[in-house]
UniProtKB/TrEMBL annotation:
Keyword set, alphabetical order: Membrane, Transmembrane, Transmembrane helix
Top-level taxonomic group: Eukaryota
Parts of the chain that traverse the membrane: 7-28
Pfam family, one: MITRAC7_Phoenixin
Organism: Erpetoichthys calabaricus (Rope fish)
Annotated protein name in UniProt: Small integral membrane protein 20
Cited InterPro entries: MITRAC7/Phoenixin
Recorded GO CC terms: mitochondrial inner membrane
Gene Ontology BP, a term: mitochondrial respiratory chain complex IV assembly
Chain's gene name: SMIM20
Amino acid sequence: MSKNLRIALIFGGFVTAVGVTLYPLYFYPLTHVDEYKEMQKLNRAGFKQEDVQPTGLKVWSDPFKSK
């Protein structure tokens, strides 16, 4: 096996491993937005944000946002 082919296979294997790892974490939710919105509706059904989030917190403002 030539040296260039071996390097290409190692690099290709690494890219494949990263792709297989990232697919269920990033790309699947990105392509199935409606399914995840339905899950969020079910999971957040009994909660009020005011009860969970403490009041009086300062909200970070965007310094680059024009006023």
